[in-house]
Design a protein that fits this description.
The chain is α/β, with parallel strands linked by helices. The chain has a single domain, classed as Aldolase class I (TIM Barrel, Alpha-Beta Barrel). The protein contains ten helices and nine strands. It has a seven-stranded parallel sheet with strand order 1-2-3-4-5-6-8. β2, α3 and β3 form a beta-alpha-beta unit. α7 runs parallel beside α9 and α9 crosses α10.
Length: 298
């Protein structure tokens, strides 16, 4: 491969196949509950939030493990994926996180959250937990450009991400940054500036998402009015390939393209097939002699 894939990282770290188990722990979001904003990010479809008990968290994980065992998979990562999984008092966070530790074969916890939902008390807890199990903090950056963040009603700033990254590094915890390529009003140069910032910071993991439009969102309304133009698959692959080339060789490329349930997806209609998308990306990088680290800055 021309970039450092997540599967390669897992094999190097754990010596065998590891499967990620996504968990909905019932957390909310400060951009929806009125803590910071109202209505949520313009691209996000959330009709309601649920109050999920610790027993339900255990059940989600044990049910998935039972299915994976039948496929001879016996190492797992629990991924607290839905919404902002540190947006709560520390005692609630502890209860929900520790309720996930239901099997000795769980090798890591990945915690998805917003950078404005983290502080030293929470990071100290995760640092102590990391002595028993691997911890990765996943923060949604989306873009470094505050003008774009305002446009998409993010109710968060680039500076908040930068502060969260520095604070998390203080506690020696690895960070995965999520970014979206193709946000409204952004040109290629702006997208590369976001990647260059993460490259300069030597980000541990990165997830690339393409902008997609889902039902019942502010962005869906704007798209249907012709106010938003989406990247084509070829345009996205070009930008993605050059973005990967800007990153240090040891940054793990945890995702290269987003997805959304077909029942909710409005546009775009790609990728039709993830395997074919990966082939196209690899072919583009080969044809243009691009590889991770080629364009990194000193």
């Amino acid at each position: 491969m021309r970039y450092y894939t997540f599967s390669e990282f897992l094999k190097k770290r754990y010596g065998k196949k590891v499967w990620k188990i996504p968990v909905d722990a019932g957390f909310t979001c400060p951009n929806r509950d009125g803590t910071k904003g109202i209505g949520g990010c313009a691209y996000c479809n959330v009709s309601s939030f649920s109050n999920i008990s610790t027993d339900e968290i255990k059940d989600q994980i044990l049910t998935k493990i039972a299915k994976l065992e039948r496929r001879k998979i016996n190492k797992f990562i629990v991924y607290f994926q839905s919404y902002s999984n540190t947006h709560a008092p520390i005692n609630i966070i502890k209860e929900k996180i520790e309720s996930a530790l239901v099997d000795d074969r769980i090798v890591a916890l990945y915690v998805g959250t917003r950078p404005d939902c983290i502080d030293e008390e929470k990071l100290e807890y995760f640092k102590n937990l990391s002595k028993k199990i691997d911890i990765v903090m996943e923060y949604g950056l989306q873009t470094i450009h505050n003008v774009t963040l305002q446009k998409i009603n993010r109710a968060s700033t680039f500076e908040e991400f930068d502060n969260a990254l520095k604070l998390t590094r203080k506690y020696e915890l690895p960070v995965c940054a999520h970014i979206i390529l193709g946000l409204p009003g952004e040109n290629e140069s702006m997208m590369y500036e976001t990647v260059k910032y993460l490259a300069k910071e030597k980000i541990d993991f990165i997830k690339f998402h393409h902008l997609h439009i889902v039902k019942n969102t502010k962005m869906c309304t704007d798209y249907q009015k012709g106010k938003i133009k989406l990247l084509s698959e070829d345009q996205y692959i070009k930008i993605l390939a050059h973005s990967i080339s800007l990153l240090p060789e040891n940054t793990v490329i945890a995702r290269v393209v987003g997805d959304a349930p077909n029942d909710f997806l409005i546009a775009p209609n790609w990728p039709a097939n993830k395997s074919e998308f990966l082939k196209k990306l690899n072919n583009y990088m080969e044809t243009n002699n691009l590889f991770q680290g080629k364009l990194k800055q000193c």
